[in-house]
Amino acid sequence: MASDPLFLQVQVGDCVLVEPHGAEWWVGQVLHCEGGARCQANSFFQIADVDTGRIQTVNPNIVTGIVHKGKMEPVESQAHKPRVLQARNRQSKSTQAPANAVHRTVEIGILGKAI
Prior knowledge:
single chain; mainly beta; five-stranded antiparallel sheet; two-stranded antiparallel sheet; 1 helix; 3% helix; globular
């Protein structure tokens, strides 16, 4: 409802503006809404900062705006996909690789290790 306080309108998945007292504002996505013992009104939020990924528990009074309502679609990223790199066969440092050195294809996983 439009007449409800803002913190009552916030739901899991919303992107919200957080303005802590004496600190810089930031935008985060709501991961969890904690209700009170007597009623289910939001009394705390767990919010993930969209820039740093840091998860914080915040009081509803510092949530000053809803930037995006509902769950956001993930951005297509190439970071989690394996990539293919060219790797030379290993040789000792004392011998130089010939001009026609054999190369092999290595698939690199998410942690930078060959898979």
